[in-house]
Design a protein that fits this description.
Elements: E1 2-7, E2 21-26, E3 29-35, H1 39-43, E4 54-56, H2 62-65, H3 68-80, E5 88-92, H4 97-101, E6 109-113, E7 120-122, E8 125-131, E9 139-145, E10 148-152, H5 161-165, E11 171-175, H6 192-202, E12 207-210, H7 219-226, E13 233-235, E14 241-243
Parallel strand pairs: 3-4, 4-5, 5-6, 10-11, 11-12, 12-13
Antiparallel strand pairs: 1-2, 1-14, 2-3, 7-8, 8-9, 9-10
């Protein structure tokens, strides 16, 4: 299973970069996980829009879905140019009907509702869900394939249930929008120290910090997480590839 970072930024993308977007690949099946601002532009340096097999959306904040519309039009135009492709499924929760409806576009994409209490099969991936602590309905996801696992926290403040949900994951892709001494819970986000606590208590094999802040010294996030979690830690950046 491979994870590749497309967009590591929280809220909005830095210049020439992207907010939340990640590629998961196993046995040639490619899932785009969230599709924030700038993701489509950066995606094309790695794979083409028509080569995606599925998209999964954690929630409907713009930094996670802003490029859905341009992804739809990219596939539409590629079709006009003679590229043949199947209708792309976009999996998302159905609890904001207006936003969910926008995931279906002509025969280009189709919104597919996941039910958080159920295990979803997407290609080779079995996916489980956990509602997070965020101002809007948002879901963490645990992807499992061939005996390996990746947990994506999406946007969330720390909650105890994440520990069991992430238990012994091969990789934890954890949001880290705040530094250790800041108050993050009211904003529905995670600090570096809570990211370290989650990784430590869940006994994950490696930690990747993402949804990064636009200020401060980012290496400090790693240092603060490492004060609690002793395993390998990386800061998400475009093109970072993790193989498990």
């Amino acid at each position: 299973m491979d994870l590749t970072i497309i967009g590591p930024w929280g809220g909005y993308p830095k210049v020439n970069e992207a907010s939340s977007g990640y590629l998961l690949d196993h046995d040639g099946y490619t899932v785009l996980l969230d599709c924030g601002s700038g993701v489509l532009s950066k995606l094309q340096s790695l794979v083409q829009p028509e080569s995606l097999d599925a998209v999964m959306i954690s929630h409907y904040h713009p930094d996670h879905i802003a490029d859905i519309g341009v992804l739809q039009h990219a596939r539409l135009i590629k079709g006009y140019l003679g590229v043949k492709m199947e209708c792309l499924p976009i999996y998302a929760h159905p609890f904001n009907q207006h936003e969910f409806t926008n995931l279906t576009y002509k025969q280009i994409t189709k919104g597919m509702a996941y039910q958080p209490e159920d295990i979803l099969q997407v290609g080779p991936f079995s996916v489980r869900f956990l509602r997070t602590n965020h101002p809007v309905e948002c879901y963490a996801m645990r992807f499992e394939a061939a005996g390996k696992s990746i947990v994506y926290t999406a946007d969330t403040a720390f909650k105890e249930e994440l520990i069991e949900f992430s238990n012994e994951a091969d990789l934890l892709l954890c949001e880290c929008n705040f530094y250790g001494q800041q108050e993050a819970s009211k904003a529905g986000h995670m600090t570096s120290t809570f990211a370290g606590k989650l990784a430590h208590e869940a006994k994950v094999k490696q930690l990747v910090l993402t949804h990064l802040p636009h200020y401060g010294r980012l290496e400090q996030l790693k240092e603060e997480a490492a004060s609690i979690y002793q395993g390998p830690i990386q800061l998400a950046c475009f093109g970072l590839k993790c193989q498990i």
